Amino acid sequence: MSMTLERRLVRSLIGVLVVLQIGFFIAVYVSAGVLGQLTYPNFFISNALSLDPGRAVGAFVLPISATIILIVVGARHFRMYRSFTPKHPRKLFWFSFTCLIIAVISMVGVSAVAIHTNRWIHWIIAGIMFISGVFLVVTLPFLDKSLQVTAPRWLVRFRRFIAALVAVSAILLAATISWEKATASVAEIVVTALVILYLVTLAHNSEFPLVSRLSAVNTVFPSKSSSPAPSTRVISRRTRQSRSHSDLSHTSSINSNHPI
């Protein structure tokens, strides 16, 4: 895939995701508020998706959003894995990739099982989706650092700032969900918005093409276990032979000039 086509595809998918999420929040919360389906202090997204028309909107938007996230972030993980060497953190990579898969599957599950269908199953699936999404966003900056991804300094700091806010908001949600539901509801909305904002940063020019950039890094910093190419070994062998012949000739000339 060419760089231009890859850039257009990723940016188009991220643009569709942003539009869907903005429309999703407006449609779900406005409709639920007008119809009186939201009661203080329960302003969770799950409460807004509990009844129609919010449930219908969620059933349409969430699977599409999950598919886009899987394509964009999953393709980025695949490009990272192609440039891995033994020194790179494979366990962290697979943990992040597992969080991605769990998050997108749970997102579809949240849209399929509403609160009024089965409250406990819905909250379990929503909790799994929330935790896996938080871990995914938190681990991505560490993967970028380990792979030495070429990106502007402001973008690297901005991504780390978003990841830190996601972690803080998640902790706030976990600490207040049992006794301060209004604060927990706001924290949930903030985490969701920050995750989408982090995905928007993946449309930056420094992401394209990520494969060639990471390959260049691995060429400059080769792994210890990597063996030289056959042509390199042949050249080095010829070099050693020429050096040995030159040393022998030099020794012979010394012996001829200085006989014993």
Short précis:
With 260 residues, this protein is mainly alpha-helical. The chain has helices spanning 3-34, 45-48, 54-82, 90-112, 119-146, 153-176, 181-201, 210-220, 230-257.
Topology:
Elements (H helix, E strand, L loop, with lengths): L2 H32 L10 H4 L5 H29 L7 H23 L6 H28 L6 H24 L4 H21 L8 H11 L9 H28 L3
Helix pairs in contact: 1-3, 3-4, 4-5, 5-6, 6-7
General description of the model:
- With 260 residues, the protein is an all-alpha fold.
- The protein has two domains: 3-220; 231-260.
- It has nine helices and no strands.
- The protein is globular and about 55 Å long.
Short descriptors:
260 residues; mainly alpha; 2 domains
What percent strand?
A: under 5%
Average the pLDDT over all residues and give the rounded result. Answer: 81
SSE succession = HHHHHHHHH
Instruction: Provide the low-confidence segments as ranges.
Output: 217-237
C-alpha geometry = globular
Largest sheet: none
> Which structural class do you get from the secondary structure elements?
mainly alpha
Radius of gyration: 27 Å
Let me know the number of strands. Answer: 0
Which range best describes the helical content: under 10%, 10-25%, 25-40%, 40-55%, 55-70% or over 70%?
over 70%
Q: Distance between termini?
A: 72 Å
Number of helices: 9
* Number of structurally distinct domains: 2
